[in-house]
Amino acid sequence: MPGFLPFSDRSFFMMDFVCVAMLLVLPAIAFGIYMVRFKKSYDFHKKWQLAIAIILLVAVVCFELEVRFSNWQEAAKLSPFYQTWLYPALVIHLIFAISTVFLWIACIYGAIKKFTKPPRPSIYSPKHKLLGRLSVAGMFGTAVTGWIFYYVAFVA
Fold this sequence. Notes:
By secondary structure, the protein is mostly helical. The chain has helices spanning about 15-35, 40-70, 70-75, 85-115, 125-155.
């Protein structure tokens, strides 16, 4: 299915969707962190972050299906960066994206297993904070490198 962003006529729907979604996901994650850090709303933080994780999981599965069944490489051949920066940009993006998936899994799994119900600070909190910070950094890196790849492949 063709993309909807006006500055690219070579992109696909889910690529455009994920680019826009990442503009919303990063502030949404920040809001969840704000709620736990400053408002001490642990239950809200848990539900909010799990909702974001589920929405991201569905979006990534749909995105991956479209990538597998589309011929994005053919569309990207029109880019002036196809022979130079396209695949290095993709590799860097995939390093961020794949490592972030594992960080999120570790962060969420640990939180579900180690925190009480309702969630409260515990001996696990420092590790959860570290995994959370690494996950957020990974999400930021995934978004930025994804936008760079999108530009290099479908806009330039």
